[in-house]
TrEMBL record:
This is Probable protein kinase UbiB. InterPro entries: ABC1_dom (IPR004147), Kinase-like_dom_sf (IPR011009), UbiB (IPR010232), UbiB_bact (IPR045308), UbiB_kinase (IPR050154). The active site is at D291 (proton acceptor). Keywords: ATP-binding, Cell inner membrane, Cell membrane, Kinase, Membrane, Nucleotide-binding, Transferase, Transmembrane, Transmembrane helix, Ubiquinone biosynthesis. The keyword Transcription does not apply. Residues 93-346 form the ABC1 atypical kinase-like domain. Belongs to the ABC1 family. UbiB subfamily. ATP binds at L129, A130, S131, A132, S133, I134, A135, Q136, V137, K156. Pathway: Cofactor biosynthesis; ubiquinone biosynthesis [regulation]. The chain crosses the membrane at residues 523-539. One of its GO terms (cellular component) is plasma membrane. One of its GO terms (molecular function) is protein kinase activity. GO terms for biological process: regulation of ubiquinone biosynthetic process; ubiquinone biosynthetic process.
Amino acid sequence: MNIKNFRRLYRIIHTFLRYGIDEVIPDIPLTRNARLGRKAFFWIKNEFPNKPLGLRLRLALQELGPVWIKLGQMLSTRRDLFSPELSDELALLQDSVEAFDGKLARQIIEEALGDKLETWFDDFDETALASASIAQVHTAKFNQNQPLAGKDVVLKVIRPEIENVIKSDLELMYRLAHWIPRLSPDGKRLRPVEVVREYEKTLLDELDLRKEMANAIRLRNNFENSEMLYIPEMYQNLCRKNVIVMERIYGIPVSNIEELKANGTDMKVLAERGVQVFFTQVFRDSFFHADMHPGNIFVNYDHPENPQYIGIDCGIVGQLNYHDKRYLAENFVAFFNRDYRRVAIMHVESGWTPEDTDIDGFEQAFREVCEPIFAKPLSEISFGHVLYNLFNVARQFNMEVQPQLVLLQKTLLYIEGLGRQIYPELDLWKTAKPFLQDWLDEQVGVKSMLRQINQHLPQFREHFAEFPESLFQALKQQKQINVRLAEINKSIKKQNNSGRSATRLIVIGCVICGILWRFDTLPIWLSVILLVGFFALFVRESGQKAIDD
């Protein structure tokens, strides 16, 4: 560890101690050295003893800067690891930091595009429109030399040197993560190294803006001409690893309820469409925007009676396969039907819990945790918290963490929170059930069979001309196999008959000689001659059979 890293580590520890985060270290013999070291080298007292732990942790992460803010945001989604109180507090972390110099942003963009900004743009604003921990955005418009002259655009640029900062802080995070299991008996359950590794992947993905561009293009294509969702256009020829250029959108922030109402927005339709957009992405497209917090969602000013969402910042997405969708649909339907045995069986059939799982015990565990949820009306039940409870129970039966489902749970909680903020009477089950039931109906029965036949029809047509010849060759081979099997059976039968005859001859001879010796009616020399004769007959019989074969 170099001096720079050591100083950074000292500041991290200093900040955590100032907010009293060290109180989570238990006072047990295993942690005695750590507690002694804390008193020997750090004389910092908790300056906020009357504030709850969750709030103090949020304030500490905010003070440590962008990388730690994003870590807290990610931890807020891991409700399978942390208490609801802690997760809710971390969810309040705002990814908004001071912008860096606009002249430096201009320089970075020009280096990435290979020429002066005036080659493509007019009215580049060096004052950032918005600034976050990884990147910031600036506004401009296409100039007269471009096909879309006068079109308003947004240029998103990665912060300078942020990659070095991220890698340095990640190195320290890994060191801290390896210490946590030693400091707390509950440390292994939190799987700190796994959490940091998952966070590292998310961060490094966000450093390549080309991935965000590709995600946005895919989402835009999925909702082309849709009344429900609009994704801004990406201008691919001007997109690089650290710079992307996209269409600028104008809309009402979805969290601004007063402005939405003042614009005449149909709040009920808007809330229901949020749920519909989510389930369409999940069950139709198997590809969903996984960062749909209020800062990334707007509502179109036009047609407030038929409201349309606008989604931006597609850096984080989730993908589901057939088994994931089957898991979700069947578990939600079974849960709302209170069929906890089906819920238990689905977890085993999905391969996420061991095959030898006690189904009866699994069912009972689900029943005990999930049944109290039905004390509320169906319209007030949270899908996100249903998933949270299912994951909690399944983890006790050795279910492996499924990152794509954790992302989905986080997104679902965002959607639910927004939906009920927009329209408190929103009935999530009534809105979502048609998507779940229709998808399940399409996976079984005649519809599913016809769809699979239709999918394989081109392959059937391709090989249809070869079918008669292939059938003739198969029948010819089968005839040859039958003839050969008949020859083998005949040979085996002859060998069995020969073996049985020789065996009978020897047994009879031995029995006769034994009887005669027993009653002393035959001299020994004559007995020997008889045995030799029986053996000679056996050899002759065996030789004749061999000649016949």
